[in-house]
Amino acid sequence: MAGCYFMGIDTGTFASKGVIIDADANVIAESSAEHGMENPKPGYYEHDAEAVWWHDFCQISNDLIAKSGIDPKDIKGVAASALGADCLPVDEECRPLRKAILYGIDARALDQCHELTEMYGESQIKEWFGRPLGSSDVMPKILWIKENEPEVYAKTHKFLTGSSYITAKLTGEYYVDKFLGLASFNPLYREDGTPDPDLCKPICRPEQLASVGETTDIAGCVTPQAAQETGLAVGTPVTVGTDDSGAEGISCGIGRLGDLMLQFGSSIYMFLVTDHLVNDDRIWRERFIIPGTFDVSAGTNTAGTLTRWLRDNVFADLKKAGEDGGKNAYAAMAEEASDVPLGSDGLICLPYFAGERTPINDPYASGVYFGLRTSHTRAHLYRAGLEGVAFSINQHFKIFEEDGAPISRVMAAGGGTKNPLWMQIVADVTGKEISVPSIGIGASYGDAMMAAVGTGAWSGFGELASKVRPGVTYKPDMENHERYERYQRVFDALYPATKELMHELNC
Questions:
Q1: What's this model's pTM, rounded to 2 decimal places?
Q2: pLDDT digits (tens, 9 = 90+) for 54-109
Q3: How many CA atoms lie within 13 A of 39 on its CB side?
Q4: Which residues pair with 295 in a beta bridge?
Q5: Residues in domain Carbohydrate kinase FGGY C-terminal (predicted)?
Q6: Least buried of 159, 218, 381, 485, by fewest C-beta within 10 Å?
């Protein structure tokens, strides 16, 4: 299939990444762009959709085309993914009316969660969500805008997520995929993807919601304006797109029952493919991207955000050395920590530096280093941070299996997989093999693969999965796993023991 290429671009919390692949899933070109995240108030996290999301997409698209030397007409399909469960109001020209309210790390709408729970009753909320309302839900975010920014609400043509905004900018069509839409906007859509007028009434007008399609459906084609800005050819098919975590899972070949994707990004996101919906107050569940399947999912607020904080504030000399042409700061940090023994000489880190989503669902939780002694060094702080994230992951694995959703295979993706020390720690703490595919680009690679499916170049998700090539597998050291159980018990007990004190500090 000479002259047949596919582009995928993903927008994350601190960076956007893009890739062009050929019909055999070979990578032809890569590009990336870093950006910031705004934190105007405690619990408020935002992106400027025009200056970050669309700017990055256009920059990366043009860069990919230039690097590859490909005629834009030979790019047969484009797909975008972005942060999930964002809330962006736009006008009739798809111009943002305010900065995007980000996914579950933004906790501004907790009062609206309580208000909606009182309105509908806890039993109805539980029936809809399988858990209490929380910061990862879009419905309370829309209500927050309606109650706090009525002038914005009145002008809103559509409430979009990151992927639906980018797709709209490319095609002029407003879509959100079923995987993201039916879960994040629950219960505003019916099961068939049409808005429910009665349930929308207290929140928004039905016409303010995007249309729903499968992730690989064609939403539309690149418009002349979008072609001018992105370098793509007019008329290039664009799929509906999805959220970054779903695309990341697809890039790993996830799809069979018992497959679990573990995404190491700014935060941790994970989902386990199941054949039914699982209800548990501590975690989430939804329909999966692959039709006919479901998943249980969970997400923390920090992972790469924690290692980034340590780099910037504790290892600033290594950061500067890397910027001056020396060793990458993260590689140098891992090298320092490699000499620290298992358990970090009795130092435990609660990685709740930005509050926490699952399993504690507490935006007022705080980060903790427990057990500090004068013998500890910054290398101990770093290793304890990696171990703390691993202990949190292990809490989730135990919850999944308690709920009758066994894990048969763990595939890891995201920037954190470049850290072998971290991957081995996670394998040892959980007692599970952690496999990383040979092409670890992540969500943008999954996007490009789904563009191949959506345009009919590949027959479906089965053919897609067959093109994912195995890479490194980290096998757990079961003696280390047993030794870690002692530290896991302390980790598990530390949050309940300090919760009230954390809340007192945050009042």
A1: 0.83
A2: 999 999 999 999 999 999 999 999 999 999 899 999 999 999 999 999 998 999 99
A3: 9
A4: 273, 286
A5: 265-453
A6: 485
